[in-house]
Amino acid sequence: MDTAINNKIKDQDTFFQKRKGFQGSSLKRELKREIIKHLQCLLAREQKSATTHDWLVAVAMVLRERVFERFITTQQKHHSRDVRRIYYMSLEYLPGRLLSIIAQALDLFEDLEAVLNELGQSFETIENAEPDMGLGNGGLGRLATCFQDSLATLDYPAVAYGIHYEFGLFRQKIVDGKQVEAPDNWLKFGNPWQICRPENVQCVRLFGRVENSYDDSGNWCPRWVEGRLVQGVPWDIPVVGYGTTTVNFMRLWEARAYQEFDLETFNRGGYVDAVQTQSESEVISKILYPNDSTSEGKALRLTQQYFFVCCSIKDIIRRYLNGHSSFDDFAKKCAIQLNDTHPTIAIVELMRLFMDEHKLSWDKSWEICKSVFGYTNHTILPEALEEWPVDLFASVLPRHYQIICEINRRFLENEVEGKWPNDPSKKEALSIIHNGRVRMAYLAIVGSHSVNGVAAMHSELLKTSLFSLFNELYPGKFKNVTNGITPRQWLRACNPGLTKLIDRAIGSTWTKDLFELKRLEDKATDPAFQKRFFQVKYENKVRLAQTILELCGVTVNPNSLFDVQTKRLHEYKRQHLNLLHILYLYRKVLQNPSDETIVPRTFIFAAKAAPGYFMAKQIIHAINIVADMINNCHDINDLIKVVFIPNYSVSLASKIIPAADLSEQISTAGKEASGTGNMKFALNGACTIGTLDGANVEIMEEVGKENIFIFGRTESELREMKDYNPFAHYHGNQALKEILDWMGSEYFRQPNGEHPLQSIRRSLLEGGDPFFVLADFEDYVNTQRRVSEVFQDRSKWMEKAILNVARIGKFSSDRSIMDYANTIWDLEPVKID
Known about the structure:
Elements: H1 3-22, H2 25-41, H3 52-80, E1 85-89, H4 99-105, H5 109-118, H6 123-128, H7 139-153, E2 158-163, E3 171-175, E4 178-182, E5 195-196, E6 202-206, E7 209-211, E8 223-225, E9 228-240, E10 247-257, H8 263-267, H9 276-282, H10 295-321, H11 330-333, E11 334-339, H12 345-357, H13 362-372, E12 373-376, E13 387-389, H14 390-396, H15 398-419, H16 424-430, E14 433-434, E15 437-439, H17 440-446, E16 450-453, H18 456-466, H19 468-473, E17 478-480, H20 487-493, H21 496-506, H22 527-552, E18 561-566, H23 575-591, E19 601-606, H24 614-631, E20 640-644, H25 650-656, E21 662-665, H26 677-683, E22 687-690, H27 696-703, E23 709-710, H28 715-720, H29 726-732, H30 734-743, H31 756-765, H32 773-791, H33 794-806, H34 813-825
Parallel strand pairs: 1-2, 1-11, 2-10, 11-12, 12-16, 16-17, 18-19, 18-21, 19-20, 21-22, 22-23
Antiparallel strand pairs: 3-4, 5-9, 6-9, 7-8, 9-10, 13-15, 14-15
Helix pairs in contact: 2-3, 2-5, 7-34, 10-12, 12-13, 12-15, 14-15, 22-33, 23-24, 23-30, 23-32, 24-31, 29-30
């Protein structure tokens, strides 16, 4: 075990031992008094009339007071020591609810539970009143949040920057089987954790033009003028380290109008026009990922990305200049990590501010930029690498476009020409501006000192396939840091039953060193431990079954195999492959209801589709049509149930993941960068069925081939299938042909004429099956048959499930963060006494 981790464990154990010395009846009396005080003095409520939301705010205020004391201590220590910080820039975060997480980090969870019980309240009920923070969508935002937890827990100085979305992504409703988007008004009743910092408001310019001007020495000094000004208002949310005093923070920017209200226009009767500027400005931070299927949507996305980057870079410079008179030490004190391609414009913004506002030379500015920025790539899918039409980019950010052109010119003439003299093909291949588009991923690579993938396989694909020429040009720049998850959120908080079982078996140090779970290996074949492990899983399934009944109106059997696929809806994640298997089983049961090879299964889906993604929404509709048919078919005898749980979120994931028996990680090999859901399910005792894709490969290496169900063609095999013909599989597999024909029949057509299953069939056959669903179908079905066989042997299944928990230690976000700190950021922890 790493010496640094060992030292952290000792520090944190000492912290908790000291803390326990002060706990007892006196602490509970203090907590009770403070809760009642906040009800009365802050909310003007007596206990009898207080609502659940009132109790939530009162308890949060009790925790917040302690958190902000530590926050002030942390920031004072960081400032006095002039520490090097990591500034983490991400368009998404996905914290979920904070009440339980912060209570556990402060070691107050059990005390608060007891105090609230004495007051006639339930901690769980109060926690459920807290809305999930609408700051992200999927794995990218959840990963960013796990990383912030680990940074604070490991005592690394850090600030996380993002956008303070008013409505988040969207609240998903399922109406007549179809996804309907509604605003996610998570801030409707405020948020008890956030604090506004009006003294640090930043001004952002958009559009306008570049004016050619010259200084007194005759040097060209371009000025960005006119256009539209927007204010960025910062909101801080604390990030509380577990078992330590460190409290870092997220700073999220809200867009507001520079001139909020045009009173003169209003008085002339222009009531709508008087607030037009305000509306145009505030729309920037309204929602995450506005639909970019229109030119207006594309402009809003670019504006949104620049807005948060501009505010953040200006804030970083402001913080630095508080203790420095020149930029000589900027690269020594600041590391900036770009979480995916969205914040890449930060490189150009820092160049602009250095040159235009602070009068640094080009060479000095570029030297600093390349020293401070690191870029994490999260995907090889072309649509996620981001390219902007030149016309749009130059219109929204005219000065930045000038700078990008100059970066590109110097890059091609100096670096590319130096490596490949007189080779125009290399210049064309590597140019940041190509075919009338600005390639943001290329800019990120050129302007960063480090580029990393997020799983060993993904990082290798970046070097050998997607960015192979850049890898030749910059040997050593490309690295790997495999993703991880925080065990504080994804075991201790979400699965208290399993947490208590593990604590009794090996102690609680695993919370801060996940490799400690290795000590559970000896318990994997212990009948008594298996029995207790099974009981915990069953109780979690009972709880989820109740949630499913409440949200979906479907009764499911907790004794059935809970087969779960929860993730963003995308064709490469292949929820429709799962659907084909369901239809395969459905036909088998209809044709032979007494087939004893079919194990009772509950198929559980949860996912959101991007509003403009037609096929993803068709898949959701198709799943719900099939679910409705199966769940109401008496011939099935409850052998199969299918549910689609709406509005997937962190709080829902916290109920679903602990209850899963089988984790579906079935993306097309080579398409998933890493995945973190696979890690969360394994940590909670689910077995994985998956392809050799993303982190699945490393999970297999850790848990053992015999404890994971791998199927499907490899990335290299798929790459070699240049003349792939889905009809060959259609005609070559009778069962598959019958399913696809059934999908295209009138059997599944809806009364209003809609036929999403036929749309899926056309995509798979006439559309060329771009994600090789049909190519992997047969192996998937055969592997699922193996799953059923093993599941019927409870002892064997429990052994595999326990070993998944025991061997998942590598996938802690603490390990990921230490990798970043040591190999990319050159960052040291700062212990706060």
